[in-house]
Amino acid sequence: MDGGGTTGGSVTRNGATGEGPAKGRAGGGASAGAVGIDGVEVRFRTRRREVTALTGVCLTVAAGEFLAIVGPSGCGKSTLLKLVAGLLRPTGGEVSLGGERVHGPRHDIGYVFQRAALLEWRSARRNILLQAEIRGMPKETARARAAELIAMTGLEGFEDAYPHELSGGMQQRVALCRALLHRPPVLLMDEPFGALDALTREQMNTELNRIWRETGTTVLLVTHSISEACALADRVVVMSPRPGTITEVVEVGLPVLREYAATVERPEFHTAAARVRALLGASSTGD
C-alpha cells in the first residue's frame, strides 16, 4: 500500500517519453528488489521519555524503482533505511524484501552512507574488494565484478590510488562500487552526496542515474535536497516532522534517462519540486 497521493507528471520509465525500460524492473511484490513497509511504527525509550520516531508508515517500492525520501531533520528518514536493512526492528508493523519479512540484518542489500568510510591503507580496488572478503565471494568473480564497476563509475586509472589521493566524488564512487559488488537487488543510500560541492554533486547525480539504469537495482535514497530528489527519483516520499509519517508520495514523471542540467529545466521537474516544497511547508530541507 502506498502512503499518500501522487502529483506531477504521470509518465514513468515505461511511458511514452522514456528512453526504454531499465534492466531489472518488475512488478509483483515477490520480486527480489521489491520493498514493502506495512503500518510501521518505531519507538525509542530514552532516560526521560519514550520517543516515537515513525508512525503508521505504509509504502510499496517496485523492483527496479528509484525512490527518494525527503523530510525535516529528525523525521525518521534514516530510520526507514535501517528498517529495510534489518539493522533496526519496528516496534509495530512489518517490513519485507522480495515478499520475505525482514527479521534481522540483511546481507543481500547494498548501503552507501554520507561518508565513504574507506580504509586509508587500502587502494581503491582493495577497498571495493573488502566487500568480497567479508562475504567470502570467489576471488576471480569478485575481481571481474570490481573491474566492471570501476569502468562503469569512471574510476579507471585510479584503481591503485589510496583514499587520500582521491577527491570526495571519487571516494564516493569507490563506496558505491563496494556497495554494488555483490549485485544487491536493493541499494540504500543515506545522504551519499551531502558533503560534496555543488558541481561534483550534480555530476554524481548524473552518474547515479546511469548506474541505476544499467544495473536495474532498486534504489532508496534519503536526501535533504529537493532538487536531487526530483532529478533522480521515479517518486519522492515526503515525510512529516516527528513522529514521521508519509505526507504524500509525489510522482515525478520524468524520462528514465536524465542528465542533471537538462533535467532541472524540464516542466515535470519544476512541477514535482514545487509540490514537494509546498508539502514541506515551513520545514526547511535545504536545496
Biggest β-sheet description: 6 strands, mixed
Overall pLDDT metric: 86
Q: Helix and strand string, N-terminal first?
A: EEEHEEEHHHEHEHEEHH
Strand content: 15-25%
Protein name: ABC transporter ATP-binding protein
Keywords: ATP-binding, Nucleotide-binding, Transport
Organism: Streptomyces clavuligerus
Domain ABC transporter: 37-266
Task: Summarize, please.
Helix content is 32%, strand content 21%. It contains 8 helices and 10 strands.
List keywords for this structure.
ATP binding, six-stranded mixed β-sheet, transport, ATP-binding, disordered N terminus, nucleotide-binding, 287 residues, alpha/beta, globular, single chain, Rossmann fold
What does this molecule look like?
- With 287 residues, this protein is of the alpha/beta class.
- Helix content is 32%, strand content 21%.
- It contains eight helices and ten strands.
- The protein has helices spanning 77-85, 124-135, 139-152, 168-180, 198-215, 226-232, 260-263, 267-280, and strands at residues 35-45, 50-61, 66-70, 92-97, 100-101, 109-112, 186-190, 218-222, 235-239, 246-251.
- The longest helix has 18 residues, at 198-215.
- The radius of gyration is 18 Å and the shape is globular.
- The two termini are 29 Å apart.
- Mean pLDDT is 86; it is low at 1-29.
